[in-house]
């Protein structure tokens, strides 16, 4: 007898879903039967990428994907997005907080704008989505927010990113308590180095040294993170809340 994760009839809203881990999250949840809402901030190529992904998924299953535009750093835009999505879909079951940016610099050289922009998206953005998302989530749902190994290891030049991601981990522990009365679970995933466009900016010499810390001897793929998010939103994780799952190949640097 096999165990199947079936999310048919459920709605998953994924922030930063136009590329990388977010796009793979959308494909994975869609494959499990969920209707997926692809959020993007309408910056650069995000609109075109999200539209292409939406077309791809709807070709597989009609009316199973839609696009929602909002910069998560903008609370008014997030509030409007959540209301509109709930009106169209009937409610939100799963909120995946994936949107993030990096502005790496040592503390002595980091500008105030570089600090503020990362905190605004990576930490305040998660707060905005949880605050207004919870207003439109159905009972028994789940929130999964992306932290990072940077929050645990404290990588050089990432004071803004590491601080924001550490805040996300703490926020999920708090929300797991506050949302429990509605049967809504809240967990975090702390990925290691995942092969995305963001990871591609890491110099090769640094990548070589990083890989020495990974017992599985490879960096992760977006699907490695998406599969864990799927588990956390499934009935298989019905008694899992307030946790941070490290998806890093065993990194113990």
Describe the structure.
By secondary structure, this protein is an alpha/beta fold. The chain has one domain: 3-Layer(aba) Sandwich (Rossmann fold), CATH 3.40.50.720. It is 43% helix and 17% strand. A seven-stranded parallel beta sheet has the order 3-2-1-4-5-6-7, with helices on both faces. Helix 4 packs parallel to helix 6 (159-178).
Overall body shape: globular
Give the helix/strand class. Answer: alpha/beta
Strand order of the largest sheet: 3-2-1-4-5-6-7
What are the secondary-structure elements, in order, as H or E? EHEHEHEHEHHEHHE
Summarize the structure.
This protein is of the alpha/beta class and 253 residues long. 43% of the residues lie in helices and 17% in strands.
What key attributes describe this structure?
Rossmann fold, seven-stranded parallel β-sheet, globular, 253 residues, 17% strand, 7 strands, 8 helices, single chain, alpha/beta
